[in-house]
Amino acid sequence: MADKPLLQVRKAGIQFGGLKAVSEVNMEINQGELIGLIGPNGAGKTTCFNLLTGVYVPTEGDILFNGERLNGLPPYKVTRKGIARTFQNIRLFSELSVLDNVKVAYHSLAKHSILSSVFRLPSHFSGEKEMEEKSIEFLKIFQLDKLKDEKAKNLPYGQQRRLEIARALAAGPKLLLLDEPAAGMNPQETHELMELIAFIRNQFDLTILLIEHDMKLVMGICERIYVLDHGQLIAEGTPEVIRNHPKVIEAYLGEEVAGDA
Ligand SMILES: Nc1ncnc2c1ncn2[C@@H]1O[C@H](COP(=O)(O)OP(=O)(O)OP(=O)(O)O)[C@@H](O)[C@H]1O
Question: How far, in Å, CA of 37 to CA of 14, rounded?
Answer without folding.
Answer: 17
